[in-house]
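User: quick one, sequence for these tokens?
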């Protein structure tokens, strides 16, 4: 039971960090499509900022993994932190979206996050086929809501940072002219 419980907790961690990004991505593109008629450079820049927000989520996930490992530096603890090694490594790869070459195509970050969104879909499928308890879905939905909030907050932080940096660049440009 302990090993299965730890695996389940790690699955919830992955859902909590990454699964909500797909909905945030879709909402940003929907809002941009609705605002296409109006010329708002801020709304138009949001899709370009999405990979950086996703990279921030990955950086926070990396921090959590490092914190969990640093609590106990034994080999057993490190092995316990990687019950789902492929999914956890896949999650850690999201840090690579800080690289501008990867961030130029925001759809790559969407494809990366869909792996974790499918964990949620898999649980729904298992509920329909009656192989899991409905409490698991309730837990998934609570964690998924937190994931939506986390990814929205990360996008807001990146957007605010972009806005401040663009204003600083504008003031430097006008002062140098």
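Assistant:
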């Amino acid at each position: 039971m302990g090993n299965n419980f730890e695996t389940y907790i790690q699955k919830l961690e992955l859902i909590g960090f990454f699964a909500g990004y797909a909905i945030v991505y879709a909402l940003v593109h929907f809002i941009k499509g609705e605002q296409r008629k109006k010329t708002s450079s801020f709304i138009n820049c949001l899709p370009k900022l999405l990979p950086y927000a996703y990279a921030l989520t990955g950086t926070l996930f990396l921090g959590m993994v490092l914190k969990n490992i640093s609590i106990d530096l034994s080999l057993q603890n490190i092995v316990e932190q990687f019950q789902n090694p492929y999914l956890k490594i896949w999650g850690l790869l999201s840090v690579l979206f800080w690289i501008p070459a990867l961030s130029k195509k925001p759809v790559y970050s969407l494809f990366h996050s869909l792996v974790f969104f499918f964990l949620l879909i898999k649980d729904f499928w298992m509920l329909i086929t009656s192989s899991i308890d409905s409490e698991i879905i309730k837990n998934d939905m609570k964690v998924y809501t937190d994931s939506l909030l986390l990814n929205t907050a990360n996008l807001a932080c990146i957007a605010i940072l972009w806005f401040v940096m663009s204003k600083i660049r504008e003031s430097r440009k006008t002062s140098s002219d």
